[in-house]
């Protein structure tokens, strides 16, 4: 059953919607990696441009002449995004991600210009990975950052994004069933 599953590999040319839950091709989410968006205001004004940066810090060593990291950014609620280096980044599947040339770094600068037509809150979510440059997903790790900010004219209390990656009862049930099936098949083959 496990042999029929496709193998996972990293995507140095960027990741679309499949990266909306995190950088699963680079191992698991880890405290070895800290992801942030530097420069987010506590509240925003309409039609205002903010200079922001995605920053990834990690205990995973950077290989100076190899791949170092990547990201998937989603912004819900309006405004426009423009990255400083458009050859290192791309818009893909209603979000932004790195291009292959953008993986030789762990930081990306961009501007966000807020909408002139809405005072609704805006949610920023970024999943970022730190890679060790061995051209494989082994030894890599990732984490996530999320923040929702309110408009200055609509200062409501906002629930912040939560990344719940705890293993639940259904996950354990599927794992146990799969493992039991694998053991059963192995016993049948050995006999």
Question: If you had to describe this structure to a student in words, what would you say it looks like?
Answer:
The protein is mostly beta strands and 191 residues long. It has a single domain, classed as Immunoglobulin-like (Sandwich). 12% of the residues lie in helices and 33% in strands. The strands form 2 sheets. The protein has a 6-stranded mixed sheet, with no helix packed on it. The chain has a 4-stranded antiparallel sheet with strand order 1-3-8-5, with no helix packed on it. Strand 6 and strand 7 (96-98) form a beta hairpin.
Q: Mean of the pLDDT scores?
A: 80
Number of strands: 10
- Which superfamily, in CATH terms, is the homologous superfamily? Uncharacterised protein PF12988, DUF3872
What would CATH call the architecture?
Answer: Sandwich
Instruction: Indicate the CATH class.
Output: Mainly Beta
SS class? mainly beta
**Which stretches are low in confidence, meaning pLDDT under 50 for 5 or more residues running?**
1-10, 16-20
Number of helices: 1
Oligomeric category: single chain
Biggest sheet, strands in spatial order? Answer: 2-10-9-4-7-6
First and last CA, distance: 19 Å
Order of helices and strands: EEEEEEEEEEH
Based on Cα principal axes, name the global outline. Answer: globular
Task: Bin the strand percentage.
Answer: 25-35%
Rg over CA atoms, rounded to whole Å, is 20 Å
What would the CATH topology be? Immunoglobulin-like
Report on the biggest sheet: 6 strands, mixed
């Amino acid at each position: 059953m496990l042999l029929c599953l496709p193998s996972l590999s990293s995507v140095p040319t960027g990741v679309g919607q499949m990266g909306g839950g995190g950088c699963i091709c680079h191992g698991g989410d880890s405290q070895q990696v800290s992801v942030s968006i530097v420069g987010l205001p506590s509240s925003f004004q309409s039609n205002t441009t903010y200079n922001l940066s995605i920053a990834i810090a990690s205990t995973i060593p950077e290989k100076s002449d190899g791949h170092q990291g990547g990201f998937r950014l989603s912004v819900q609620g309006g405004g426009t995004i423009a990255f400083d280096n458009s050859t290192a980044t791309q818009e893909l599947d209603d979000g932004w991600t790195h291009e292959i040339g953008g993986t030789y770094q762990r930081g990306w600068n961009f501007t966000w210009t807020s909408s002139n037509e809405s005072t609704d809150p805006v949610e920023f979510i970024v999943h970022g990975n730190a890679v060790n440059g061995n051209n494989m997903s082994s030894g890599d790790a990732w984490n996530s950052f999320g923040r929702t900010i309110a408009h200055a004219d609509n200062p409501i209390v906002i629930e912040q994004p939560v990344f719940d990656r705890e293993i639940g009862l259904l996950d354990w049930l599927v794992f146990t069933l799969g493992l039991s099936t694998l053991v059963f098949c192995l016993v049948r083959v050995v006999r």
